[in-house]
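Morning, I've got a small favour to ask if you have a moment. I owe you a coffee for this, so here goes:
>
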Amino acid sequence: MIATENTILITGASGLVATALIEELKNCGYNNLVLCTREDCDLRKFEAVKRVFHQAQPDIVFHTAAAVYGIGGNAIKKGSIFLDNILMNTHVIEAAREVKVKKIIAMGTIAAYADTNAVPIKEEYIWNGSPHSSESSYGHAKRAMLAQLLAYYENYGMDFAYIISTNLYGSNDKFDTQFGHVIPSLVRKCHEAKLNGHKAVIWGDGSATRDFLYSKDMARALVLIMNSFTGAINVASGRKTSIREVADVLTDLYQMQDGIEWDKAKPQGRIFCEMDLSHLRALGFRPLYSMRDGLKETVEWYQLNFDKNLVRL
């Protein structure tokens, strides 16, 4: 059990995962938090990262920062996605080693898995086959982070957890219709369609399915894992939801029935990945939020912050 007086450093502190995590940590009595945003430190520059870590002397590190662009951006930014993530991950882990952290908890991704018929997908399958072509550079960079963590655990005894994360959504996300992930992109499209009185155009035909997890549920899982797990672990809701189901909830929340137009010429992404959640459930984790409840809170946050010009686009 990690004592509440420990110093916890969080990268990507203004992002989707970290903002929910910060709230959860404080609720659990962890108040000695060092928040590292993009404005505080460019994680691609090792000297800058070292300065932050040596000054903070953290006991625990949550590495949630990443260069993420969604299915649209992944297709045209493969080089920069790979380089930026490799640099950030490598620098954070090495700096953590230098200051002798007790444990680092790093955000991986379901994109690191290859398409497979061997379901549910267990954590050890992460090395089987290449990541899906639509997210290959991001997936490879995240795999390399796991390889580094394993090497440092074996060589230096640095404890770690590597979160193989499903598709996340919630407040403080990147609501970018071109380079954002599925749900934040849909929220923005529906919001703008409602404002402008037109239909929201959504890629595909709505039949593609995903496992979605609300950021507040992810935060709860991260605190459990910090205290109780070492190694790679799948984190997901365990629920299979189609894009059409998500769109139906959003159009209901925005009161814009029949407000969707499906662009079937656009890609739908990879097939559904059912993740084995045995390790996660053994920790006692179950999601608290339904899809509708999570989306309702996300939409309410987006509407409030859109009016204040605080939404990341």
Notes: The two ends are 38 Å apart (CA to CA). The chain has one domain: 8-307.
